[in-house]
Amino acid sequence: MQKSIKPLAIGLIVLGAVLRVMQTWNFAPVGAISLFAGARLRGWQAYLVPLVLMAATDPLLHGYSAATPLVYASFLINVWIGTRLRRSENPLWIGSAAVAGSVQFFLLTNFAWLAASSMYPHTLAGVMACYAAGVPFFWRTLASDLFYSGVLFGLHAWLSRTVAPAERVARHAIERVAAQAV
User: Fold this and answer.
1) Looking at the domain assignment, is residue 2 inside a domain?
2) How far apart are CA 150 and CA 95, in angstroms?
3) Contact between residue 36 and residue 9 where contact means Cβ atoms under 8 Å apart
4) Would you state the pLDDT for residue 3?
5) Residue 53, in any domain of the structure
6) Cβ count near 105 (within 10 Å)
7) pLDDT at residue 154 tops 60
């Protein structure tokens, strides 16, 4: 029977939360943390991680805005994307999931910015201008999601082989296959 408490995964998430508070230049680990939580935690725990992380750190960084609900929703989508990685340590799959998370975050949060502000007219030209203005932020989001996903998933893979073998993904996948064969 698999343990539902995963101290290694939770410890890495806490480390990511500390890094979020120390972030610079829109290089934050929240997208990667959401992806990682979906991949390594189960059920409500995974979905609670980005909500608590954002609610606890937003007041310290910049507060809340009209776009906050869509930002939070975007991180919940990242958790859902991460659930597709529960049985994988494949860097290509993890990297692809990080890219997908970055793209959906860009699309949702720029839409939220457009809808909540009067900076851009609500026309096709305004939509295009808003998304074009967001491209520099997208590259930093993509870079941070790829970097922090590599760090979190890489550290988890290494530490689950050396320090906390009960959390090893490959071992659990093998046990599931063996249990299904019986």
Assistant:
1) no
2) 8
3) yes
4) 55
5) yes
6) 25
7) yes
